[in-house]
UniProtKB/TrEMBL annotation:
The chain crosses the membrane at residues 30-52. Keywords: Membrane, Transmembrane, Transmembrane helix. It comes from Streptomyces antimicrobicus. This is DUF3105 domain-containing protein. It comes from the Bacteria.
C-alpha cells in the first residue's frame, strides 16, 4: 500500500484550500452580479415609474388646462371685442368700465412681464398691455393684504401679467383681460387660476406675442 508523504499531504491540503477559495470567489461573484442586477432592475423599474408618473402628471395638467380654457368663468363679464377701439392716441380716454378692458389707448404699453406696481398705473397704458395678451390684476383698499401679497407672488412668476391698485373699482379684487373681467373673492378663488390659464395670451388677445417689456415702467 502506498504511503502519503508529509509533502504530498501538505500539497493536497493546499490544493483543497485553493479549490475552496476559488469556490468562494465564484459564489461572491455570483452574489455580486445578482445584487448588481437587482439594483439595476430596481433603478430601471423606479425610473420607469417616475417617468410614467411624470407623463401622467403632464397629462393631468394638460387636461386641467384644457378644462380651464373651455369652461366659462363664473360671473365673468364680456364685452364685444369688435366694439372696443384699438386706436393709438396721445389724449385722455374715457372708458365705460373700470378697470378698462379695451378701447383706444396710448402707444406705449405698461410693462407686463410679471410686473407688480405699488401705485396706480395709467389706464391708457395698461389697456395697451391687455391688447398684447396680458392679464391685469387690480385691487382696492377693501382687499385683504394677505390676498394682495399672494396674488403679487403669482403675478411676479407669470409673464404677460401686471398688478396695480385701483382705488375706486367696484370689487375688492378684479382680473381683467381684453374684453374680459371678473371679480374674485380672494387669492384662493379657483377662478384666479382659471382666468390666468384662459386669458394670459389667450384667444381674446388682439396682438398675441407682442412685447410686454421695454414699455412704460411704473413705481414698484
Amino acid at each position: 500500500m502506498a504511503t502519503r508523504t508529509p509533502d504530498t499531504s501538505r500539497q493536497a491540503r493546499i490544493a483543497e484550500m485553493r479549490r475552496a477559495e476559488r469556490a468562494r470567489e465564484r459564489r461572491n461573484k455570483i452574489m455580486a452580479i445578482t445584487a448588481t442586477v437587482a439594483v439595476v432592475v430596481g433603478l430601471v423599474g423606479f425610473g420607469t415609474y417616475v417617468l410614467l408618473d411624470q407623463k401622467q402628471q403632464e397629462k393631468d395638467r394638460a387636461r386641467a388646462a384644457e378644462t380651464a380654457r373651455t369652461t366659462p368663468v363664473k360671473d365673468e363679464q364680456t364685452w364685444d371685442a369688435s366694439k372696443l377701439g384699438r386706436n393709438h392716441v396721445e389724449t385722455p380716454v374715457s372708458y365705460e368700465m373700470k378697470p378698462p378692458v379695451g378701447g383706444d389707448h396710448n402707444p406705449r404699453w405698461m410693462n407686463c412681464n410679471g410686473d407688480v406696481y405699488k401705485n396706480p398705473v395709467p389706464e391708457v397704458n395698461a389697456v395697451h398691455s391687455l391688447e398684447h395678451g396680458a392679464v391685469w390684476v387690480t385691487y382696492s383698499d377693501k382687499a385683504n393684504k394677505a390676498d394682495v401679497d399672494k396674488l403679487a407672488e403669482k403675478v411676479a412668476k407669470t409673464p404677460y401679467t401686471l398688478m396695480s391698485p385701483v382705488k375706486d373699482q367696484a370689487g375688492a379684487i378684479m382680473l381683467s383681460a381684453w374684453g374680459k373681467q371678473v371679480t374674485v373673492e380672494g387669492a384662493a378663488d379657483p377662478r384666479v387660476d382659471q382666468f390666468f390659464t384662459k386669458y394670459v395670451q389667450g384667444p381674446q388677445t388682439p396682438e398675441p406675442g407682442a412685447a410686454c417689456t421695454m414699455g412704460l415702467a411704473g413705481d414698484k
